[in-house]
């Protein structure tokens, strides 16, 4: 495939969220997005996208933009057909900048797929025609109203943000939604805000109330893998590492040293190749896989949908960025029919 890269450009933009995104450790009203444009010598342009989230990877919009000239210099003159080797080179050169690398990898993936005349989903495996996502309900005062609106749009899997307050507060919010929507399924995400004790208090209270929980993401601080291991051994609810698993190396350590039941893969934490490496390690260890997002725009979401459908490897789908971020138009880079997602 003879097509050389002429230029790589990065531009910063903010996109307003549909509602405030309130977690236990932060709140946001907009998404910070770096849009990449990869241009070939033939004048073709292909998009990529980075969403740096400092508390997860240490990156900021400023750090991504600062790195952009180095990434541009690294890829200029390279062949699109060598996208895998280019991606590995970026990984070796800039290991601490996964969101920045992910944006360029997405542009490379889009370019290679277009030049090959296939979709990104087909390039990544074409295992499934579509997947079903949950929808995140953050710690909103009108959480029940938001959940009921999503239910009317055919969503049945709800990921509820917990922590940052009392166990009773979380229990009341979850029970209110569960009572109103008796056939709904629930997942929890504490974003590192709980202890082993408070995690067990919440899960035990929910079990006592007859509310079944499919999984809990990152209940304890990411650095405390002993606590993560303890929670994983104490409860029958699958514990999924998120902030504590940013790449394949960290996944390997978690699976070797803890009983954690699975990990959440996000392109902005690992890039495309890092995600594929983590998938291989998780499957070898017989652990669960979740795919999530970090308030991506349409370009980043489309790449995640392509990976989810293409690989077919994920037990849990949490790709609801298009429901949280106001793109200002109907999605055009991937299909979203209620909770059902697919690529064109």
Would you mind describing this structure in some detail?
The chain is an alpha/beta fold. 42% of the residues lie in helices and 23% in strands. The chain contains 13 helices and 14 strands. It has helices at 54-57, 61-75, 83-93, 98-116, 120-123, 143-152, 167-180, 196-208, 225-234, 248-257, 267-284, 298-311, 321-324; strands at 5-22, 27-40, 45-50, 131-132, 135-137, 157-161, 185-189, 213-217, 239-241, 262-265, 288-291, 316-317, 334-337, 340-343. The strands form three sheets. The protein has an eight-stranded parallel sheet. Strands 1-2-3 form a three-stranded antiparallel sheet. Helix 3 (83-93) runs antiparallel to helix 4 (98-116), helix 4 (98-116) packs across helix 11 (267-284) and helix 7 packs parallel to helix 8 (196-208). It is globular and about 65 Å long. The model has no long low-confidence stretch (mean pLDDT 95).
């Amino acid at each position: 495939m003879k097509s050389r890269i002429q230029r790589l450009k990065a531009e910063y933009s903010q996109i307003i969220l549909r509602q405030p995104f309130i977690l236990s450790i932060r709140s946001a009203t907009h998404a910070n997005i770096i849009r990449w444009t990869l241009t070939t010598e033939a004048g073709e342009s292909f998009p990529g996208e980075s969403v740096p989230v400092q508390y997860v990877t240490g990156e900021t919009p400023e750090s991504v933009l600062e790195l952009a000239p180095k990434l541009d210099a690294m890829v200029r003159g390279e062949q699109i057909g060598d996208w895998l080797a280019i991606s590995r080179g970026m990984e070796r050169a800039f290991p601490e900048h996964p969101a920045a690398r992910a944006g360029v990898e997405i542009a490379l993936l889009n370019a290679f797929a277009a030049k090959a005349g296939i979709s990104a989903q087909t390039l990544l495996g074409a295992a499934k025609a579509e997947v079903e996502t949950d929808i995140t309900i953050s710690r909103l005062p009108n959480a029940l109203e938001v959940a009921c609106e999503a239910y009317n749009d055919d969503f049945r899997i709800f990921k509820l943000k917990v922590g940052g307050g009392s166990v009773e507060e979380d229990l009341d919010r979850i029970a209110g939604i569960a009572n109103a929507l008796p056939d709904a399924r629930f997942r929890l995400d504490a974003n590192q805000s709980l202890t082993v004790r408070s995690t067990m208090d919440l899960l035990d209270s929910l079990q006592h109330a007859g509310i079944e929980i499919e999984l809990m993401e990152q209940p304890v601080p990411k650095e405390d893998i002993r606590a993560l291991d303890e929670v994983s051994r104490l409860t029958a609810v699958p514990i999924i590492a998120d902030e504590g698993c940013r790449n394949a190396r960290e996944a390997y350590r978690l699976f070797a040293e803890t009983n954690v039941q699975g990990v959440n893969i996000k392109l902005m934490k690992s890039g495309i190749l890092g995600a594929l490496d983590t998938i291989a390690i998780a499957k070898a260890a017989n652990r669960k896989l979740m795919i999530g997002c970090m308030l991506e725009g349409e370009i980043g979401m489309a790449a995640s949908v392509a990976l989810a459908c293409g690989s077919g490897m994920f037990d849990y789908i949490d790709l609801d960025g298009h429901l949280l971020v106001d793109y200002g138009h109907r999605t055009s880079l991937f299909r979203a029919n209620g909770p059902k997602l697919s690529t064109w």
